[in-house]
Each structure stands twice: as C-alpha cells, then as structure tokens.
Amino acid sequence: MKKFSTIAAFLVAGLPLASANAHAAPADATIAQAQAVAAKSKCSFLPDAPDKHVVVSGDTLWGISSRFLQNPWCWPQVWGMNKEDIRNPHWIYPGQIVYFDRVNQRLRLANASGEGMVGGVATVKLSPRARVQGLGANAIRSIPASAIEPFLSQPMVVDVNTLERTPRIVAAPESRVNLGQNEKAYVRGDLDGGTSFQVFRPGTPLKDPESGNIIGYEAAFVGTVKLDREGDENGDVHTFTVVNSKEEMSVGDRLLPIPPTPILSYVPHPPYDEIKARIVSVYGGVSVAGQNQIVTINRGREHGIDLGTVLSLQRYGATVKDRTDGNRLIKLPNEQYGHVFIFRVFDTISYGLVMQVTDFVKVGDIAQSPQ
Predict the structure, then answer these.
(1) For 181-203, b where at least 16 C-beta lie within 10 A, e where not — what string?
(2) Cα–Cα distance measured from residue 365 to residue 360, given in angstroms and rounded to the nearest whole number
(3) What are the C-alpha distances in Å from 44 to residues 102, 261, 286?
(4) φ and ψ at residue 103, rounded to 5 degrees
(5) Sorted alphabetically, which Pfam families does this protein's record hold (predicted)?
C-alpha cells in the first residue's frame, strides 16, 4: 500500500493538523485522506469504473483518469498528492496497472509482474522524482502531446512584460531589410548570458476582455539565430548568424532564448487559489474553438496559475425578459460546458488545451476553478 504522509493527507484535505494527530493513525490517515479530499472536491468515481486498467503506449493521464473518475482533473486528490508531488509527479509507464480499490475508494498503481502484493492486491510504493532533463522519456503524457508540442517550444504568444525586455534585430549587412539562413543580423538588447535564440515577430495584440488593456501579442515564429560576437565597451550591438529560418527575418523582429526541451508529465489539478479568468483568444485567428484546440486566458503566473491547472469553461447566462413578471429583465445562470488544461504559463497570460466540451469555446467565456 502506498503510505501517504499523515500531515500531507490533512493539509491536502483542508483539515486541521490537530484533527490529524487526535483521530488518525498513519495507516488510517491514508484512507481518510483520499476519501476526505474526494468528498470535498467532488472527485466521485464512475459507477461503471473498471476494476483495473493496463497502461499502454498512447495513453494519457487525462484519458486514464476519465475511465475511473467523473472529473479527470481529480487524479491528484484520489492519489493523495500534495503540491510538491504535483510539481514533481510520479511517472507512470506502459505496462503498469492502475487498480480501483472499491472498498477504500482510491486508486493504486502496480507493475504487471505484481510487485508489492498487499492483501492480494498488487501495489507498488511511488516516490516523487525530480523533474530533470531526459528523465521519464517513456512515461505517459498528461494530455495528447501532438496537440501542444509546437506551443511548448515556439513563442506563439508573448506577454507585454516579456516583449518590453526582449532584444531586437536593428540592422542587416548592406542595409538589407530581410535576412535568410547563414546571414548576419545585428541585435541590440540585454542577452542575459544567452547565445542561442528564437526569433519571433509580434502580431495581433491580445486584449483583456475585462479591462480592455493589452496583455500580450500573438507571435509568429520566424527562425533561430546564434551569437557570433557580443557587443563590447565601444558599442551595445551584438552580431548574430541566422541558423535557420521559417521565413525571412526582418529588422524589428525580436529574440527569445531557446527554451529547454519540455517535460510533458505535469499533473492535471485544480488551482490552489480561487481563479476566475476569461478566454482572450483562440489560436489561429478564429472566434471559436472545439475539442483539442488551443486558447489563451487572461491569467498567468502572477495570478497563481501553474502547469497542469484545470479550469472549468462556462458561458455567461443570457439576459432575458421574464414574461411572467411584467417583462422584467433577468439573468439566466451561467452554463458549464467543458474544461481547459493549462500547459504553458507566462506572467499575465496562459495557453490552454480545450478538453471535453459539449459546446464551442468563444472569446470572452469564463474559465474558473472547478466546482
């Protein structure tokens, strides 16, 4: 049996530590934790949930969760994962088996060989592993990787704070305006020790639906450059070479450091603080989004959003006339129609993947903490 920390159990469940010490031994707290958190977060198991699921290549954490749980984002609560566990998640690999312990209403993970037999049920204790480069390459992903990979490695949206401090191309040899592969580019701005950069072109401004302020810009990825010679004490102009180009680079294009290879095994979870955001844009310049499409929201790192945050999607209820009460105007309740999974976070804006919707997502819709 996986032994969860008694203290962590009650912290995650939102119960006082005094209750933990007074009423539960460590073994009991393991069960109490999962049940208390599940009850608080409405993490109900499906009535027709299977007894077990063998993890196969191509599975996703969200998909497996949806086989057992009414709300797939409840996975961390059912496992009893605390905030640190979510940041450094347990890896789950093809060949392992997820068991549904119906008596205690929780899930267990085992190897196919039956490692760690307890009471006739094959289990294995999982320990948090550090998220370091290259670790867990074969682990299953949280959500479909193909839908989000381009957005993890290329700057498709840039928040205002980042744009203001990015270096920029100021000139090209022989007064040319456009640049291609292997050509020189002259850049001004703080490189912050970087030598390899992506080049992007700021595009359509993204406005906060609530304040009307510009909080970011759509960014077209145009290529990569590497540093040849840093500016010296006689000047602040750096010399770069174009490594590759998706399209011709131009004077005025901006630079961002090439990010490390992303790790996609972050865990779906509700936000730690209450969040109420709005849909800012749908990627591709369209007005509506469907399943597995990309949207941005007007909340980011500064608001407590982190990787794996799941928000419910709701549409404002219409204002209509109550014909039974003298045509008095009344507002209908907001309607929930799906979820959005946050997979890339900036200071004031974030990318999300649309999950399990029963209607189209529209700009201005609500994205808030699941209820």
Answers:
(1) eebbbbbebebeeeeebbbbbbe
(2) 10
(3) 12, 35, 36
(4) -65, -45
(5) LysM (PF01476)
* pLDDT of 66 strictly over 80: yes
Yes or no: say if 31 and 25 are a contact pair by the CB < 8 Å rule. Answer: no
Structure tokens at 161: 């704070």
Residue 88 binned pLDDT confidence (cut-offs 50, 70, 90)? low
pLDDT tens readout for residues 184-202 = 999 999 998 999 999 999 8
Torsion 104-105-111-112 (CA) sign:
positive
Share of the chain above pLDDT 70, in %: 78
Q: In whole angstroms, what is the distance from residue 126 CA to residue 51 CA? A: 20
Please tell me the distance from the alpha carbon of residue 370 to that of residue 346, in angstroms, as a whole number. 21
